[in-house]
Please model this.
Amino acid sequence: YLAVANWQNSANFDIDSMVYQWNGTALAVVQSIPTHGARDWEYFSINGHSYLAVANIQSSTVNFNIDSVVYQWDGTAFVAVQSIPTHGANDWKYFSIDSTSYLAVA
Model:
């Protein structure tokens, strides 16, 4: 899989970002996810569950107070499981300390 963060098109920041899967010959779109000036995707796994977090920097109305979203793989698609209030988010980092999982946003 490959998740691509689409920051903007020629007109606005509220555009879909894509998740691709290798089909043996090429990368094919398997999911389109609404994003808002997406700057980064972070993949992580906790207890055998797969997650993607998107860092949304701004909306098309130039609002930097925009939620970033954590998605969980349900076996067929990534489904939103938590929205996190952020201000101009640029990057996620997942890490663990002493078996405790953390997700930091900048």
Residues 59 and 66 are 7 Å apart (CA to CA). The two ends are 24 Å apart (CA to CA). Strands lie at 2-4, 14-22, 27-36, 38-46, 49-56, 65-73, 78-87, 92-97, 100-105. The mean pLDDT is 95.
